[in-house]
Amino acid sequence: MIRRVKKSGRVNKETVYPLKSLAQTLNGQLLHVDPSESAGSVCIDSRTLQKGDWFVCIRGERTDGHLYLQQALEQGASGAVVQTERIPESLLHTPFPQIRVADPNLALREWASLAREQFSGKVLGITGSNGKTSTKELLSRLCLIIDKNTHATRGNLNNLFGVPLTLLRANPKARWWVIEMGTNQFGEIGELSRISRPDGAILTSIAESHLEFLKNTEGVAAEKRDIMAGMSPGSSLVVPADLKHLDLVQEKAKQQEIRIVRYALEDQNQKAEWTVSRNITSEGFKGFELFGKYFSSGALHPLQLRNLTASLVLLYENGVDAEQLQQAVSGLDFQVSGRFEWKRLDEGWLIDDSYNANPGSFRGVLQSIRFMHPKTPLIAVIGPMAELGENAEQLHKEVGEVICHSGCKKLLVLGGDLGESYLEGWKNAGGPKEDAMRFESLEELQKDFQQEWDQKSIVLVKGSRSAAMERFVKAILNHESE
What we know:
The protein is α/β, with parallel strands linked by helices. It is built from 16 helices and 22 strands. The strands form four sheets. It has a nine-stranded mixed β-sheet, sandwiched between helices. Helix 4 crosses helix 10, helix 12 runs parallel beside helix 13 and helix 13 packs across helix 14. It starts with 16 loop residues before the first strand and ends with a helix.
């Protein structure tokens, strides 16, 4: 049912849900409210709740929404989705509008699935070990240039809570919903796909990520390929032609009658439905050819080109003509915060790739740097990689070796035992011991960097989210501006 919400907590919401049928969808019991009334906007965090929201009392790893139910009601929540056994004693006999369910987390996903059911535009899904957020940003920006009626995942709201919220807060009259899907456990991507039901999707990469739970790259592929779980037969999944474990992905696609659409750069010599031809002159990268058209776009590095190509192919496969895509690319901003973001640092550059890290993303970033600047001195300032499981030590050693082989002149590491593994890999690859150092604190790292820094160097800053390497970026840039 679509109509204007009179008291909406979210300005972009136009969908309302009659409470009687909503309770049935959620397999819940409606209490203390007129069943002819409707719910509009949804919130799961009492700190951001707006008057008129319905508060869903989700349970996370660290907290329980029921603990904040009183606060949500005092702030003007219209009602709440609750689990009877977890309602605070002080509210157990208070007649507030509510839908009682067995599992509020599941109820949130069921509500989001209902929102998707009422959407008549196209849902474009994205997952992968590396590059999914950068690709999401490029894809959503292309969509916005073509048609401003586009809604996309904000920030990193890509998990079992974030994706449902994205769907519930999206404009139902948009042309596209661009939905990023992340995971660190088996079964999550399939669930997110069944909720969002993509009309088409991109699988950016398969690499060593979340190995603590997914065990190995075969496990990663098995999980990521489940983005097809909610897709209809005949729809397209766009993948790089050199995708690791492509055979596992193709096996799943065959079972579900999904079309695999591969893309490649011309020098990869890979079999692909679409191949990109780059125009590189003595002055650098000038543009590329795709779909029989020339796209003028300077300063693209290989990672950006891969992500952009995937986005263009997905849109082309979903009915956008090449001329529209040409025009959109000409007006595209390629910078994505914390993801291979180039910042001037004196006569050199600081590359802020601090958002996240795994072995595959390290390799890709270093290859891109050397593609663009094969001779420029490189300093790597890095933090540990998280969620690599029992192979964490060995994988850190391998990355240390890769950094050394890239011609890096200095390696500065923040962290404990895993930092030592980086250094061991560096030394195993023949890197000078005196050019690789580990620091326990950001202050020590920053001080040494200021002493050792070559002002004409490229400085790569990278680490997992938990390493918070953006602190180093901020400190160095603030110091330079003083």
